[in-house]
Amino acid sequence: MNEEAAPSATLDVHGMLCPLPVLRAEKNLKLLKIGETLLVLTTDPPCG
Description:
This protein is of the alpha+beta class. The protein has one helix at 20-29, and strands spanning 9-12, 38-41.
């Protein structure tokens, strides 16, 4: 069985350019507990 668990949180940074998506992701990751995951949605190719 190879199911992916749903992310614990989602961060939508569509339209933002680096380094903003990375900085926002870092800030949000610090709020998560060990074992939780963050899904980052971005349109900036260097970040994706």
